[in-house]
Design goal:
Helix content: 40-55%
Radius of gyration: 27 Å
Order of helices and strands: EHEEHEHEHEHEHHHHHHHHH
Structural class: alpha/beta
Number of helices: 14
Shape: elongated
Distance between the termini: 84 Å
Number of strands: 7
Largest sheet: 7 strands, mixed
Mean pLDDT: 85
Oligomer: single chain
């Protein structure tokens, strides 16, 4: 059994990247070693930030493994800059492993762009000729391949499943490490992925539950509190995560949702009560009538007094 080296990014959800590679190889009964090219800051809503590992550190990781373990199967995933590409290509040319699998990471499952576009031409020129197999999603194929159409391509239909191509390429790497031919390894890997999909229970996300809880909290507290940080603390999440949830599910920021609730309630009071403008302002937590008027006019393009007059 040959050791498999995976060179790719870190996915903190565990659905893809080096975490998923090591897990799949281990579950299949193989031996995995790794080098990390990039750390992603992400959750089930998508990627927020990247930290590209310096190329010298990537090179040191790969050299330490290659010199000692001498893996014959190398799987490559996330490459985000020219310097890391150069490091990987140099190692492949010098080490000449039995099989190199490349699973290009251009877009995340949520549509985030993960690779600098100018890299694609260099990858076609430098990395493609060194690969035994390249795994591509069909919608990305034209962008990645350009006018070059190698014979060693395995096309995947598009799927919303996070890390699908990652799982397939890792399973192929495992079966190659067992001495299977490339066609046999592909067949067995496809069977493995089909089985995994039928059993899969995706990472539970609290986003929909959190969105409902946020709306409930806004309904309860909007008169007293209009600051997003208050609701984030109340729900025990960061303001950033709360913003991601409301943007993904409600297509609005938390601030917009809170302010719309305020405006709707204020309009109703202006139409249906005899309270003065000042009384309404204080009832909704504004520090002054002037502050209240400025807020209302920003949203409605008219002062509260004029709005009330127009309703008569």
């Amino acid at each position: 059994m040959n050791t498999i080296l995976t060179i790719t990014g870190s996915d903190s959800t565990g659905g893809s990247g080096v975490q998923a590679d090591i897990r799949a190889i281990t579950e299949l009964g193989g031996k995995a070693v790794s080098a990390v090219t990039c750390i992603t800051i992400q959750n089930t809503l998508g990627i927020q930030e990247f930290y590209d590992i310096p190329s010298a550190v990537v090179e040191a990781q790969v050299e330490a493994i290659v010199n000692d373990v001498q893996p014959e199967i190398i799987k490559i995933g996330m490459i985000r800059n020219v310097s890391i590409l150069s490091v990987i290509v140099a190692v492949l040319r010098r080490h000449t492993p039995s099989h190199v699998l490349y699973d290009p990471v251009v877009f995340s499952s949520n549509g985030d762009v993960l690779m600098e576009s100018h890299l694609l031409g260099l990858i076609r020129q430098q990395l493609f000729p060194l690969c035994s197999l390249i795994i591509l999603r069909r919608t990305e194929a034209e962008m990645i391949l350009g006018h070059k159409h190698p014979d060693n391509i395995l096309y995947l239909e598009d799927s919303p499943v996070h890390g699908l191509s990652n799982s397939l390429s890792t399973a192929i790497a495992f079966h190659l490490s067992q001495g299977d031919s490339l066609p046999e390894a592909k067949r067995k890997a496809l069977d493995y992925v089909s089985l995994q999909l039928s059993r899969s229970e995706h990472t539970h996300s609290r986003s929909h539950e959190l969105y409902r809880d946020f709306l409930t909290a806004v309904n309860e507290f909007f008169k007293q509190r209009s600051d997003v940080a208050y609701y984030a603390n109340y729900l025990n999440v960061s303001s950033r995560y709360l913003s991601q949830v409301t943007a993904r599910i409600g297509l609005q920021s938390p601030k917009s949702i809170i302010e719309q609730k305020l405006i709707d309630a204020i309009e109703r009071d202006l139409r249906t009560t005899a309270s003065t403008i000042q009384e309404i302002a204080y009832d909704y937590g504004f520090s002054s009538q002037a502050h209240f008027t400025k807020f209302f006019k920003r949203h409605k393009g008219i002062t509260p007094s004029d709005y009330r007059k127009n309703q008569l």
